[in-house]
Amino acid sequence: MSPFFLMSLLFGLIFGQTASLCAPSEYTIHVEKRECAYCLAINTTICAGFCMTRDSNGKKLLLKSALSQNVCTYKEMLYRTALIPGCPHHTIPYYSYPVAVSCKCGKCNTDYSDCVRERVRTNYCTKPQKLCNL
């Protein structure tokens, strides 16, 4: 192998790792139920960041395996449950939410991820707010 090829390969490996900035990030979820008196602000972690993507102009000429549309997604996650305060006895006052433990660049799995970015953000409270730090 030529030195130029080896240097190009090494540069590609190093750049590919540093360019993928996908990691757990702090995020606040606002949760409320119509029957409950309060809105709960939950501090958690989600996967967010940049992942290297290859998208060729010659899509019709290439195999699908040659194209790569990676997103920052969960590698490992767990679920926690919070109690929404001010709920009447006939209402289930619990809310379960994901916590990102580690992240990876990969295909978006619609079983547990929203793969489309929303245009309108509705992550706010309409009722008095309580903070939940778990």
User: What is the CATH third-level topology name?
Assistant: Cystine Knot Cytokines, subunit B
- Broad structural category: mainly beta
- The count of strands amounts to 5
Number of domains: 1
Largest sheet: 3 strands, mixed
CATH superfamily: Cystine-knot cytokines
**Rg (C-alpha, Å):** 21 Å
Order of helices and strands: HEEEEE
Explain what the structure shows:
Helices cover 13% and strands 41% of the residues. It is mainly beta. The protein has one domain (19-128): Cystine Knot Cytokines, subunit B (Ribbon), CATH 2.10.90.10. The protein is elongated and about 70 Å long. The model has no long low-confidence stretch (mean pLDDT 76). Belongs to the glycoprotein hormones subunit beta family. InterPro entries: Cystine-knot_cytokine, Glyco_hormone_CN, Gonadotropin_bsu, Gonadotropin_bsu_CS. One of its GO terms (molecular function) is hormone activity. Heterodimer of a common alpha chain and a unique beta chain which confers biological specificity to thyrotropin, lutropin, follitropin and gonadotropin.
Descriptive tags:
two-stranded antiparallel ribbon, Cystine Knot Cytokines, subunit B, mainly beta, Thyrotropin subunit beta, 134 residues, 1 helix, hormone activity, 3-stranded mixed β-sheet
